[in-house]
Write a structure and sequence with these properties.
The protein has one domain: Rossmann fold (3-Layer(aba) Sandwich). Helices cover 40% and strands 24% of the residues. It contains 6 helices and 7 strands. It has a 7-stranded mixed β-sheet with strand order 3-2-1-4-5-6-7, sandwiched between helices. The structure holds glycinamide ribonucleotide. Glycinamide ribonucleotide binds next to helix 1, strand 5 and helix 6.
């Protein structure tokens, strides 16, 4: 069984979806072995601890952050890395080291409303501001271009009259993110298990 690390920065509802998927058997080719947070106050850490998953907090910046991250991942024999609400951009050196082993969930249909500066609630503000009628979520491989790696799964979500960014964020999470992130995680773990 492959070891999965989940990288988080905030509330961790996507981490919760991964934990639930492991318990229900949707994720069966890998095991969530570690949660790494870039923020010591992230509620995601509580979710991990409540489920007996080891946690590490790394609040350093830039190259120091990545050096410590690599050491931590190697110490836990991590094969697949899932970015679940992780609010840092990883360097090309790091993404090359783990090529095709890092995936990210983004709360829009890439290539809309993505790239540097498009994260969290801002993405939904951008979608409402533009006036699109359909948005959604994307899970993609992570490379050196922010939100630029190849797409694994996408799911569309309708925008409704009177939506606020908060209401839309919740719908996109419930209808898309919490479904496709566990599914994509299983696909990638299966792929690496067969190699
Ligand atoms: C999620 O909507 C996720 O897609 C988004 O942040 C939220 C984190 O929520 N990620 C990005 O915008 C990355 N560019 P969570 O901590 O409850 O999973």
């Amino acid at each position: 069984m492959l070891n999965i690390a989940v990288l988080v920065s905030g509330g961790g509802t996507n981490l919760q979806a991964l934990i639930d998927a492991q318990q229900s058997g949707t994720i069966k080719s890998g095991k969530i072995a570690l949660v790494v947070s870039s923020n010591s106050n992230a509620y995601a850490l509580e979710r991990a601890k409540n489920n007996g998953i080891e946690t590490v907090v790394i609040e350093k910046r830039g190259a120091e952050f990545e050096a410590e991250l690599v050491k931590t991942l190697e110490a836990h024999d991590i094969s697949v890395i899932v970015l679940a609400g992780f609010m840092r951009i990883l360097s090309g050196d790091f993404t090359a080291r783990y090529a095709d082993r890092i995936i990210n969930v983004h709360p829009s249909l890439i290539p809309s409303f993505c790239g540097k500066g498009a994260y969290g609630l801002k993405v939904h503000e951008m979608a409402l501001e533009y006036g699109v009628k359909v948005t959604g979520a994307t899970v993609h491989y992570v490379n050196e271009i922010p939100d630029g790696g190849s797409i694994i799964l996408q799911k569309a979500v309708e925008i409704q009259e009177g939506d606020t960014p908060q209401v839309l964020q919740k719908r996109v999470m419930e209808q898309a993110e919490w479904k496709i992130l566990p599914q994509a995680t299983e696909l990638v773990c299966q792929k690496w298990s067969e190699k």
